[in-house]
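$ run holo --ligand "thymidine-5'-phosphate" --emit tokens
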Amino acid sequence: MDGAARFITFEGIDGSGKSTQIRRLSTRLESAGIPHVMTREPGGSPGAEEIRRLLVEGDPERWSAETEILLFTAARRDHLEKTIRPALATGRTVISDRFADSTRVYQGATRGDLRRTVDVLHAEMIGREPDLTFILDMDPRAALTRGLGRGNGEERFEEFGLDFQERLRAGFLDLAAEFPERCRVIDAGRDAEAIADDIARTVLEVLA
Ligand code: TMP
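-- output --
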């Protein structure tokens, strides 16, 4: 790979430690003098943050999986136009907490077989894959305790329960097998520092 900016995503079940690891990676990139932006989905641009509230708050049964796919895709399109593309175009690496793989797994694989619908919309409206994706893999029971412990009113997906998180975990591992060139599965049940070391080593190799 050449030294250009890269699009890096973090994926995994709720409570798998993505935000912590993204912050740690950002600190390491800063020390290495690598320009980058941290962002997240749903959200990452003012319009997409407004859509986020509709998605992560309230009754779990508030939206069908089909409606969710449309809302997540609308938010992603705005995020891509307003944040991701401009950053990459000006040489900044983008680190995003979730992207299209979350829709493939949360909406496409766990609540009815909607993967084809997700893929059609993705091809039409987004058409971009990350250069590198970390899948933080861990025991759903431990992760769920962490996720629900936050108490920030954004637990709509955690409230689908343990079975749902088990299906998500399997879905993310299948996805890693489907896209082996860009996906790295990380054992996220370990010490945060050890995980951060693995991630930083891989990112610095890819950016070198
Ligand atoms: P977060 O807790 O990682 O910020 O994400 C908010 C929730 O939205 C999380 O439970 C995962 C879910 N989600 C989807 O269901 N589909 C998607 O496409 C994305 C980006 C997130």
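-- notes --
The mean pLDDT is 93.
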